[in-house]
Every structure is written in C-alpha cells, then in structure tokens.
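Handout, section B. The chain below has 288 residues.
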Amino acid sequence: MSPGFTGSPLDRADRVRNDAEAYGALLGDWRARILGLDGLDPVLAAEGGLVWHSAAELSGSEELILLGLSDGKPHFVALAEAEGDVFRSPAIWRALSMLPAEDAAIYGTARSLIEWHNGHRFCGKCGHLTTLFRAGWGRKCGNCGKEHFPRTDPVVIMLAEYDGKALVGRQSRFPPGNYSALAGFLEPGESIEEAVRREIHEEAGITCGKVRYVTSQPWPFGGAQLMIACIVDAVDDAITLDTDELEDAKWISKEEAQAALENAESRTFNAPPPFAIAHSLLKHWATT
C-alpha cells in the first residue's frame, strides 16, 4: 500500500506556469474545475470523493492556484484566507478515511499550497505585500521583486527496534489508546540519520545506531511537510521519557502491531489511521 497523500493523477503542468498565454487559456477553459473546500477542509460528494465546481460558479474575484491537468482539463483551487487546525478535528479524520487515495493526494497538495500562501503574504526580505504568480506556485514582492516559492519541511518519523520489538509513543493530545511512531523536524546542519537518532534519544532516552530508510509521504497539516519514515536499531530498551514531548512510550511485538493494524479486539493499542505514514511504517515493520 502506498503512503497516504501520494499518487495524484494530475499532471502538475510546470511548463505553463511561466507561460502567460498558455495559463490564460487554462483560466478561460470552459471545462475548468474548482476544488470544493469548507475553509481548508474537503467537501465530500455522496460517494465519498472530492467535490468539483464549474468555473462558471466563481465570482471572478478569486485568486486561483493551478493544481494540474487531467486529460487536458485544468483543475484549480481558490486561495482561501483560512487557518487550519494543526491538531485536526475528528471531522477531517473521518473525511480523510473516506477519500480515495488519488483524491487525498490532490487535496493534500491544495491544502499545503493554501497554507503556504496564507503564511507568506508579506516579503521576508523587505516586509512588503507579495502577490501570487506562476499559476499559484509562487509569490512575488511588489517592492523589491524577490520571488518566494513553496517549501517543504523535512520530518523524520521512526520506529526504534530492539530484540524483535518496536518503540511507539503517544502525546497527550492523541485520542485515548492511540500510539504512533516517534517523529520530529530535521534541524539545520543535520542528516536524516542524525535526526532519527537525536529525536529517539531526546524523547525516549534511547541510544540508537544503524538507520534504515523505508518510505516518505507529503503531509499537508500545519504547513507542507515531508515525512521520512525509518527504522533504527536501538542499543538498549531502557526508556527515559521526556514528558514534555510524550505522555507514554512502550515496546510492542509484531503480534501486537498486527492486532492494532487489524483493529482486532485483542489489540493493546490503537494504530494510526491508514492515510498516515506511521500506519505504513508500522505495517512494514510488522510484516518483514
């Protein structure tokens, strides 16, 4: 199973982003579709997929971001001045559990771009207002001319492994019984391997060695992030918890992981949802 928010069917059409004539033709295409959003949350059709509106339904004042093309048909999302809930509500969790994988990938791209635009309305160099350009894939300062482009923040997410067991933890904001892989942002001047070892040691007090990359996933909440999933060998299993970061941490067997992934009655904890890379990582570890 591919990680969530991957596999978008849209052609991102980078070739038209700097071509004013080609982009203008897309804006005027009667087939253009606009992604339906409620604030920053997806609007779902009765069958569970995304809702798309006709361009004729627009007022004409919207700023549009080109998400891409499908069979030549342009797909846009309107830039909304909305703030996302970093910790996310049960409503968005339910919506994401219903979305087909391809729709979730499209939505994730749209949400990441909107949140980036809302956080970069002023130039980081001179402080003046910026305006949208490159079909919504950049902003440009009207004063100093500096161009700003969307960025992705790298995050390591990992399972420490020791004697056939893996380390999982939970934060106080998690729903009762939920555990996940540990995670943290890469810091400047740090490799993926160094970040994995540092985060495990900071949060659980465990020294680790060899790091093995597994997979990656874009994550659209709280800004655009790239989740880099790894498994790391632990030197020992003595947990010293950083209670500012984690409420609890524990070692689990592969049988416990399988029970959680299958939502079995015998499970000892609740696994992350299928669209989260922590789910994919736990499944990879439990089945290899």
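Note. The first strand starts at residue 33 and ends at 35. Compare this with the example in section A.
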